[in-house]
């Protein structure tokens, strides 16, 4: 669970255990990969408000907040796997703003309620339910972005000594902002003590390490920045009429309270009156970057925070959360581009903010900017856009101009697929939201560490998976929280079990419309077969059709349909297993008369499958008739193992 400042979102991830993943790997390249996490759109759910709003009534957080999220997760995780499924709740900036005593009480209540009302694996409250620092959140996000964008090195690159440079990660929520990136070689050596060590493990047990810088700015999220901005307007008005404060970051004609609630012209008390001057809005948000703050450890970016020099010749950043929603999603239907283009975006925002508020409301109702663009989004867009651009270009220093050609090393197929033909001119920054069906969230990074930590190291001296200071400070390395065990031998039967679970899950997740159609089908069939003479007539027609033109039995029934899920069943190998070291003798399968109407093909073969791949035959000399698809399963004799390829 990602417990953010504005709400909590539950994510459910699944991955193969190490033995199965190694069994499925076809070559050393696949064994040199990280565990493959999987999720689906329905596996995630978000509710509001954030957990920090329960700080003064912690006993309500369970029934009013956590329970619906737990119920959602329990509806997805198979019942027999709940006790083995680890539960994590990581609280971020919203809870970090609380005083320490309230933080502790809130976290303890969350852990206690979860342990009481679910059977998820939760061995240690301090490990599974905690407030994470902004730096840790940034590192998790960096892992997630590079995992999904294939930024981590591959076996071929290891062998040749070359690899793509990893992607930098930018995140901004309501209360804080984070940056995480791998500096170039010169900066890495110069600022070695400022870096964090990330240690991962691939399926073959080999270790890979990355040295990453991360920083966080509490109070630099969009909501906290807005509060600081309004305070600056009030500070400027001390010698003026404080009744109405002119706000260039609100559309012209919009009037709100200090808290941002729209009010009428008859409102009594201080109010913000929009002027819709976007360039003035940019000028007023710039001081919020606090670039003039003392920098104790050069170089610095924002608020006196030390950050190694970013090499824009090799560093390419992706931005999530507000970077995606504000810089891309709000104008997605208008811009018709997957790329972030500074000049185009600035012009779109300038045009939007210059419109009268009444016209904006009308355009929202007409869905000019898309179905997800509502009045609340319109009200806050001018400030958010100004703040995001200020942080991105004036704060972090992302170049405003596009690059004319794709940089060497950034020709990954994932990127090309993500941005299409526009990938040929990738900028140093792009906002992203999902890769495939997986959201680029820091939660992916946390669970990838956990999954990688379950893989046994290739040598007995293997170091633990996790994150920590690059200087090796004792006791400060945060292990992934998972333990590896001796890997049991993977059995073929396990694949049948997993396939059956997959089918059951699909059946469980059927839509309401599908269930209604299913019931309607059976009602129609019941109506047709309600009379005995009609049933007999249809039965005779079916018998005649089957005798004259039925396909080979091996291609009918359940096993024909199931081959789409389990693979073709055309090859069945029989291996003789002799008891008591008997010398192989001749055996003969007893003749069996087959009545087309006595047993269906699917029922007979299903009976074979339920015996765990073993059946018996009659002794007295073996004679395999290739035209005989059946044998008498009730006869005594040596066992026959059936392998289905």
From TrEMBL:
Q: Name one GO biological process term.
A: CTP metabolic process
**Is this entry keyworded Transport?**
no
Q: Where is the signal peptide?
A: none
Note the InterPro entries from the entry: GDA1_CD39_NTPase (IPR000407)
* Start and end residues of each stretch annotated as Disordered: 594-645
The entry's ATP-binding residues are: 174-178
Q: Where is the active site?
A: 137
Claim: Transmembrane is one of the keywords in the record = yes
A single Gene Ontology CC annotation of this entry is:
Golgi apparatus
The organism's place on the tree of life at top rank:
Eukaryota
Task: Give GO terms: molecular function aspect only.
Answer: ATP binding; GDP phosphatase activity; ribonucleoside triphosphate phosphatase activity; UDP phosphatase activity
Q: Transmembrane ranges? A: 511-529
Q: Name one Pfam family in it.
A: GDA1_CD39
The UniProt keyword set, sorted, is: ATP-binding, Hydrolase, Membrane, Nucleotide-binding, Transmembrane, Transmembrane helix
- Family assignment from sequence similarity: Belongs to the GDA1/CD39 NTPase family.
Q: What is this protein called?
A: Putative ectonucleoside triphosphate diphosphohydrolase 7 golgi apyrase
**Source species, please?**
Uncinula necator (Grape powdery mildew)
């Amino acid at each position: 669970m990602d417990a953010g400042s504005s709400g909590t979102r539950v994510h459910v991830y699944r991955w193969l255990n190490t033995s199965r993943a190694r069994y499925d790997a076809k070559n050393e390249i696949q064994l040199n990969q990280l565990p493959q996490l999987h999720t689906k759109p329905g596996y995630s759910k978000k509710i509001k408000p954030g957990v920090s709003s329960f700080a003064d009534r912690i006993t309500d957080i369970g029934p009013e907040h956590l329970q619906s999220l737990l119920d959602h997760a329990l509806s997805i995780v198979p019942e027999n796997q709940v006790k083995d499924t680890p539960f994590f709740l990581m609280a971020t900036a919203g809870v970090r703003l609380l005083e320490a005593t309230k933080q502790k009480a809130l976290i303890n209540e969350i852990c206690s309620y979860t342990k009481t009302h679910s059977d998820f694996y939760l061995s240690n409250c301090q490990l599974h339910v905690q407030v994470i620092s902004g730096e840790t959140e940034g590192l998790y996000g960096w892992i997630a972005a590079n995992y999904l964008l294939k930024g981590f090195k591959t076996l071929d690159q290891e062998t040749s000594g070359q690899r793509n440079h990893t992607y930098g990660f930018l995140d901004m929520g309501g209360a804080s902002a984070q940056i995480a990136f791998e500096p170039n070689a010169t900066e890495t050596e110069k600022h070695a003590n400022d870096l964090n060590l990330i240690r991962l493990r691939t399926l073959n047990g080999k270790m890979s390490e990355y040295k990453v810088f991360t920083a966080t700015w509490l109070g630099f999220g969009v909501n906290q920045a807005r509060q600081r901005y309004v305070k600056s307007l009030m500070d400027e008005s001390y010698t003026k009429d404080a009744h109405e404060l002119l706000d260039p970051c609100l559309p012209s004609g919009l009037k709100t309270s200090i808290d941002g609630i729209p009010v009428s012209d008859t409102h009594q008390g201080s109010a913000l009156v929009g002027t819709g001057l976007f360039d003035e809005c940019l000028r007023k948000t710039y001081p919020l970057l606090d670039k003039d703050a003392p920098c104790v450890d050069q170089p610095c970016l924002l608020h006196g925070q030390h950050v190694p020099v970013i090499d824009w010749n090799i560093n390419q950043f992706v931005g999530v959360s507000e970077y995606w929603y504000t810089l891309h999603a709000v104008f997605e239907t208008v811009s018709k581009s997957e790329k972030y283009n500074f000049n185009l975006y600035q012009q779109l925002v300038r045009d939007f903010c210059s419109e009268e508020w009444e016209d904006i409301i009308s355009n929202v109702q007409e869905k000019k900017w898309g179905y997800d663009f509502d009045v609340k989004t319109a009200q806050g867009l001018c400030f958010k856009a100004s703040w995001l651009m200020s942080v991105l270009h004036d704060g972090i220093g992302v170049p405003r101009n596009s690059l004319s050609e794709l940089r060497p090393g950034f020709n990954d197929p994932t990127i090309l697929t993500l941005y299409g033909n526009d990938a040929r001119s990738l900028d140093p920054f792009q906002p992203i939201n999902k890769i495939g069906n997986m959201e680029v969230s820091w939660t992916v990074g946390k669970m990838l560490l956990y999954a990688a930590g379950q893989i046994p190291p290739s040598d007995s001296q293997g170091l633990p998976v996790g994150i920590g200071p690059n200087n090796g400070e004792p006791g400060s390395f945060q292990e992934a929280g998972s333990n590896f065990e001796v890997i049991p031998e993977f059995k073929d039967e396990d694949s049948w079990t997993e396939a059956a679970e997959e089918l059951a899950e699909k059946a469980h997740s059927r839509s309401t419309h599908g269930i209604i159609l299913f019931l309607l089908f059976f009602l129609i069939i019941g109506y047709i077969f309600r009379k005995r003479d009609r049933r007999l007539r249809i039965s005779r027609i079916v018998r005649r059709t089957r005798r004259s033109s039925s396909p080979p039995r091996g291609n009918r029934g359940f096993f024909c349909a199931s081959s789409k899920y389990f693979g073709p069943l055309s090859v069945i190998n029989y291996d003789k297993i002799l008891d008591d070291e008997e010398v192989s003798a001749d055996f003969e399968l007893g003749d069996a008369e087959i009545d087309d109407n006595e047993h269906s093909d699917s029922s007979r073969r299903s009976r074979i499958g339920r015996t765990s791949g073993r059946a018996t035959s009659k002794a007295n000399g073996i004679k395999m008739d290739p035209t005989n698809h059946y044998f008498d399963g009730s006869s005594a004799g040596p066992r026959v193992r059936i392998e289905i390829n």
